[in-house]
Amino acid sequence: TLARKVYNHVDVRRHFDFLAWFSLSQQCKPREVLLSVLMKVLSPSNDERKKIEKMDEIELRRTLFDALKEKRYLVVLDDIWRSEDWDILKPAFPRGTKGSKILFTTRIKNVASRADPWSTPVELSLLTDDESWNLLCRKAFPRSRMGSQCCSEEFVKLGKEMVKKCGGLPLAIVVLGCLLATKQSVAQWEMVHRNIHGHLNELPHQDRQYGAVNRILVLSYNDLPCPLKPCFLYLSHYPEDWEITKKELIRLWIAEGFIPENEEFLMEDLGKNFLEELIDRSLVQVSRRDYTGTNVGTCRVHDLLRDLCMKKAREKFLEIIQQPLHELEVTLAESMLRRISIHPRKSKVYLKGEHPKLRSLFFSQNEKFVELSISKYKSFKFLRVLTLAKRGNYDEEWHVSTEIGNLQHLKYLKLYYNYKMILPRSFGKLKNLYTLYIKFCFDIVVPDGVFKLERLRHIVIKVDRILPVVEFGWRQGFTSKNIETMKYMVVDEKAAENNAVLRWTNIQSLGIAFTGAEYVKPTLILLAKLQRLRAYIGSKMVCSANGFPKLDYLQMSWLLELEEWEIEEIAMPCLRELKLINVRSLRMLPEGLRYITTLQELNLIGMPLSLEERIKVIDGREGEEFYKVRHIPSIHIINSIPT
């Protein structure tokens, strides 16, 4: 959208101290919006967070006003429906302070006009007939497929009649065009034409324009190959306007069994192909691509398509609970449900009931921490996907229930906790576990048995502090050689002695922290399949010749003691993106950087100003170290870490 292009523009992001985007929707609750913005501005500790959550609406407005008045901010309020909601939110934002801006989008003209009587809203006009036809042609007649058929009178006549029914709405035209691009004959186009017109004749005249748009979206869904339909419906469990991570989505598809096992292709690669086809059909939008500009990083679903997705998903595919009826307890009445997605607004959700058919239990977290508990795990024994969360007091340990070990079909497990988490030894019984994702914990103890799980491929542990310390029991674990993703772990003397990391011969993505530079070289240079590395801690790093032969992404974060970094020739020959975050003691970029000719993107965030100045070109004068980065096409420098 236009608003998102403005928000993501590099000059805009550099201009403001604080940027935030919030999706409101028809169920907008002003207090929750104020709370979300305030949490993002302040980044409070757990104790501060508890105090903020107890504030009433007036206190929240006052606190947010004080927090923003010294900042140059840009806040986007997306999809606001009622002017009354804006009237409540407006006093919380200091007006005109340091060039700060509020940008909001709405589908209702009157809401836009009332927001600011002294300015004219930007109204996005619908496409003209000619513009609509040109857009349809670009989507429906790709040169590689249809060639000169674009000029065929039969195709033109049918296409122009159908595109008129889109009412100039770009989304409908694009989806229709992508649908028609899969149809190679006039007969197939005539069938689509009949489907649209037959449906419209059944509607009252005043509903026909909206009905046409909706019918086109339904036709596009119905036209999906059978394996793609559940993949599309699965997107309905994400909240509105949610930025969906490609890797997480594909791993969930795999856990659900949507991606068939294939001797010729990896399931992850098939999952990527499925996602690309949904994108090609314009049922899914790309939010961000990676540094190559070709691979999808994150995606999202347009509001109208999400409405369709949710409607279809509720037809015995997925039950969505938008807001539990009781703060502490929800009894799920339907025992035959296969998938449940909970979008909570309360502080705690407690699930009860027998669910012998349940395969997936989602728990969609947004800005605030909500606890999800289960009464009896044996009631959910066929689960393949499970998300659990718990809130604790300071220094309170969460001993995760040993009953989870009885979920023998579990393939994807995500856990949230705000303090120390201790996983039970029964985790070693989860023979089918494919992905383990742990977030927000302050500290964690992982039993040795986890690393003996032969089917486990991805372990992601995101801690809530700068320098993670995760103990794994190095001497007894690590019999599995199949792990492909590991984030985040500490390599110390004990780990180095046991060559623990080197046993992961299939590792492709690794987040790692070194307690001493002497462990870097022997630990990592032999990991031939390693493609992505995030490194933490250490005073000196040496990337040896022929080291990291397949590494294409390197991120070094919060290496507060790192002063020297050396890259030898022929090291990292495939590196394409380098990101340095808050490496404050690094004196200069390594000389060997200029030998990495594959490098396409360099991101420096929160780095020493003296280092940044030496690689810049100012008024035509090159910095003394510019020669090290001259060959890199894209260089981004951000002076402070984004909020």
Automatic annotation (TrEMBL):
Gene3D superfamilies: Helical domain of apoptotic protease-activating factors, P-loop containing nucleotide triphosphate hydrolases, Ribonuclease Inhibitor, Winged helix-like DNA-binding domain superfamily/Winged helix DNA-binding domain. GO terms for molecular function: ADP binding. Residues 238-309 form the Disease resistance protein winged helix domain. Residues 1-144 form the NB-ARC domain. The keyword Repeat applies. GO terms for biological process: defense response to other organism. It comes from the Eukaryota. Residues 357-630 form the Disease resistance R13L4/SHOC-2-like LRR domain. InterPro entries: Apaf_helical (IPR042197), Disease_R_plants (IPR044974), LRR_dom_sf (IPR032675), LRR_R13L4/SHOC2-like (IPR055414), NB-ARC (IPR002182), P-loop_NTPase (IPR027417), WH-like_DNA-bd_sf (IPR036388), WHD_DRP (IPR058922). Keywords: Plant defense, Repeat. This is NB-ARC domain-containing protein.
